[in-house]
Amino acid sequence: MVLWCPSLQTKSYKISVVLLTKNSAATVNKTLESIASQTHKPDEIIVVDGNSKDGTQDIVKQYPIKLVTEPGLGFGHARNLGVKNAEGDIIFFIDSDCYADDKWIEKVLPHFSDPNIVGVTGQTRLWNTNHEIARFLACVGGRMDMPTKQRFVEIAPTMNLAIRRETVFEVGGFDETLFRGEDTELTYKVSKRHKILYEPEAVVWFKGSPTLRIASKKCIQHFIGVGQLFAKYGFNRLFVRFSLPVRGVILLTAIISLFFTLLQHIPWYIPTMLFAWLLAEFIYKSAKMYMRYHDRCVVYYIVFFTFWSLASLAIFYGLFHQVRKNGWLNLRFYF
Prior knowledge:
Elements: E1 15-21, H1 28-36, E2 44-49, H2 56-60, E3 66-69, H3 75-85, E4 90-95, E5 98-100, H4 104-108, E6 117-126, H5 132-140, E7 151-153, E8 161-164, H6 165-170, H7 182-191, E9 195-206, H8 212-233, H9 244-262, H10 269-293, H11 301-311, H12 314-326
Parallel strand pairs: 1-2, 1-4, 2-3, 6-9
Antiparallel strand pairs: 4-8, 5-9, 6-8, 7-9
Helix pairs in contact: 8-12, 9-10, 9-11
């Protein structure tokens, strides 16, 4: 069911596309080509570059773009720079390892005729399907089977997001103190006041993480950011896409209890029950994933089940990092 039927006469908006880059020479050309090929051309493209050393700036300068250099103060700072340097009424965000469908802007823009809608997001599909780690992450992150109907959402990724520029300023912009999750936080703040629409026909293709090292680094940064969001807004399920933190706590508890069992301080059946629960949950989730996706990349689940479960405990670092910054009195304990 369509939530909003935009009129044929769309108000004339000035469109800015904001693109973050850093050492993106291998992919940024494809990103810019997809923007240049839009059926509805943007009025300007803002490239915010984090001091790339691989020739990224040489590539982007071949296009009619406005280049802004960012000193490496984080994603939130870079996105705020992009918005501040943009002149458009509507800001379209995309990442430098993504490319947009040629009707991306065309499909999104009419929805802004509704004054109640301040943001629009859409489908994000994996184009790097030859890499099994990237494919696995797309599976567990729900990117391989996204909704096909319009609906309102509470959070949205900046790899595919259009938002009114004035709304970004209204909610205070992106939080520059977050390790990651600045887009989650911004859209969460926005959706508390306004409406963000999911439009399935607005499609952006993303690369994903092709190696375990890159994926693990992003995972740890993500969970640190989640911990910071927990400290700011409470323990909200919207901030965590995976159930890894729960398994991480149980796995750590099982390991510690095994140590105390060897010292004969606790009964043997306690670590046995914990490890049995983890094994059963692993078998169940692996089988469920395979039945849903029929993809051999499910074998990577055992790697992420162990290492990433423990890595997810970085949430607690992010939590206490934010608490140390803002004080214990500002910590919210509601769910």
